[in-house]
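Dear H.,

Thanks for agreeing to be a second pair of eyes. The structure we're designing against is below in token form, covering all 140 positions.
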């Protein structure tokens, strides 16, 4: 089935914030505590400063947003592109032929609209089609 061929091209893009707390110990020679802290801060400001081995004390991962993707290209109009795609453009995004996409349109497997004689497919319809036909195991 066509949906099985699309699984390899379907992915989600997650925008995430990762916070990691690490600690290390270091001995520093200085005239006073302020000078010692300044030395350590100067070392931390270097892109590849060396302060010894670090231990991760904790971490937190937060998902900020999720975007449907097709062949590495977003299906939401974040690129300023049109909301509606021609059959040619939609088939290129899916990585299938125009004839196969027309078959999906005729069978009702993918939502579309007609303006005059043109068949147009929205980016959200592409995402819905991919999400509803994606499988997690190879045997489906």
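And this is the sequence the design step returned. I haven't edited it by hand at all.
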């Amino acid at each position: 089935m066509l949906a099985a061929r699309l699984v390899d091209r379907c992915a989600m893009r997650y925008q995430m914030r990762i916070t990691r707390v690490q600690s290390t110990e270091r001995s520093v020679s200085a005239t006073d505590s302020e000078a010692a802290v300044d030395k350590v801060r100067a070392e931390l400001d270097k892109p590849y400063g060396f302060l010894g081995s670090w231990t991760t004390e904790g971490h937190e991962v937060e998902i900020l947003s999720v975007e449907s993707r097709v062949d590495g290209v977003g299906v939401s109009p974040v690129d300023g592109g049109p909301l509606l795609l021609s059959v040619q453009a939609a088939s290129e995004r899916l990585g299938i032929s125009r004839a196969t996409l027309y078959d999906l349109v005729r069978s009702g497997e993918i939502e579309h609209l007609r303006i005059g004689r043109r068949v147009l497919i929205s980016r959200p319809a592409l995402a819905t089609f991919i999400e509803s036909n994606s499988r997690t195991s190879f045997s489906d």
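Two observations from my side: The first helix runs from residue 2 to 6. The helical segments are 2-6, 33-45, 87-94, 98-107, 123-133.

Warmly,
E.
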